[in-house]
Amino acid sequence: MRKQAATRQSDVLEVLTRHDKPLTAYAILDQMKVEEPDLAAPTVYRALAALTDQGRAHKLESLKAFVACRCEHDSSVPVLAMCGNCGAVEEHDGTRLLSELSAIPKRTKFQPERYSVEIHGLCKDCAV
């Protein structure tokens, strides 16, 4: 019997929240296949698309990986700081950046679908 979309999204989100490092869709699939061997990649991708649309997960575009959302930012921009050494991801509230970021595409009448800010570097533990 197939699971409902909301249940599937909860399953994927549960896998993401158990990890403090980004996971690719296939890493999520591998973990879920332990309990559901017949699970296919498109199912995970659909759940991830819904979760990112809802703001419950974030896609790290540069890594093609995902993390669970860990803050409230309904009308804001998630700022994701990624450690290139250990892979840790810190989520920050980019509320103060939103007005300036919104002004950039308005100049050329570009219509953004979403905003995402990624910062690459070293976390405090790896920078020591």
Shape: globular
Number of separate helices: 4
The number of distinct structural domains comes to 2
* Series of H and E elements: HHHEEEEHE
Give the strand line-up of the largest sheet: 4-3-5
Q: Strand percentage, roughly?
A: 15-25%
The fold-level CATH name of the largest domain is Arc Repressor Mutant, subunit A
Which structural class matches the secondary elements? Answer: alpha+beta
Using only CA atoms, what is the Rg? 16 Å
**What is the level 1 CATH name of the largest domain?**
Mainly Alpha
Mean pLDDT: 91
Looking at this structure, what is the CATH superfamily of the largest domain?
Winged helix-like DNA-binding domain superfamily/Winged helix DNA-binding domain
Helix content: 25-40%
The largest sheet, given as strand count, sense and whether it forms a barrel, is: 3 strands, mixed
The assigned CATH architecture of the largest domain is Orthogonal Bundle
